[in-house]
Amino acid sequence: MNRRKIAIATNNEDKVREIEQALLGIPNEVISLKSIGIELHVDESGKTFAENAMIKAKDLYERIGGYVLADDSGLCIDRLGGAPGIYSSRFFGAHSTYKEKFSELNRLLADVPLPLRTASFVCSMVLLRDDSDAIVVEEKLSGIILNVEFGDNGFGYDPIFYVPEKGRTVAQLSDAEKNQISHRGKAIRSVLEKLRVS
Q: Which of 1, 16, 108, 127 is the most buried (most CB within 10 A)?
């Protein structure tokens, strides 16, 4: 594959770092918005992860062209009907901390036994490019929502998201382990596979 510069349509440096980790050893250069002096301010008005990812990708692509990668991701809890879903980062208020979000989730799930607190991390990813059609993929990671936090790695809901096959939360995994199983890591690999065959 020829080396490409891929701009990541997010202001979240944690996401940029995860994508860079997932692309290690692959001939693509990740360009963060911070490195090119751009901030993304979009109205995430979509009804699905895929729609919101496309909104972010189009906003940046219209400004810089080339190759633009955007994702929209979140936590979907079965007992809450898929909530917080696309509102994961704004759940319980746009300015609430993740400690506050964890506390509120514990309140909502107080009567649900741990084995039944099943959930998925979902990631929709869009790649827009000058030379061909858009690539759109969606991947997920299944697990259980704990009532206490474990681990210091990762970000967001990672410390309370337990992965049974690993016997640990996502925040207890190394970057390499996380990228192998995570919703975002799998989405990046799906995008790259489609890029290879397109």
A: 127
Q: Please give the Cα distance from 189 to 34 (Å, whole number).
A: 24
Q: Number of structural domains, the chain?
A: 1
Q: What is the pLDDT of residues 107-158, one digit of tens each?
A: 999 999 999 999 999 999 999 998 789 999 999 999 999 999 999 998 999 9
Length reported for the chain: 198
| Three-class SS state of 175 | helix
Structural domain boundaries, residue 50: 4-197
pTM of the model: 0.90
Which two tokens mark 82? 């898929």
Strand residues in 111-197 grouped as ranges (E): 118-129, 135-145, 161-163, 168-169
Q: Which residues pair with 124 in a beta bridge?
A: 72, 138
Q: What pLDDT digit, counting tens, does each position of 6-34 carry?
A: 999 999 888 888 888 887 767 778 899 99
Q: Give strand ranges (E) for the chain.
A: 4-8, 28-31, 67-77, 118-129, 135-145, 161-163, 168-169
The answer to whether residue 72 is catalytic is: yes
Contact in structure between 138 and 49 (CB atoms under 8 Å): yes
List residues bridging with 74 in a β-sheet. 122
Q: Are 42 and 107 in contact (CB under 8 A)?
A: no
Choose the catalytic residue: 71, 72, 78, 130: 72
Greatest alpha-carbon pair distance for the chain in Å reads: 53
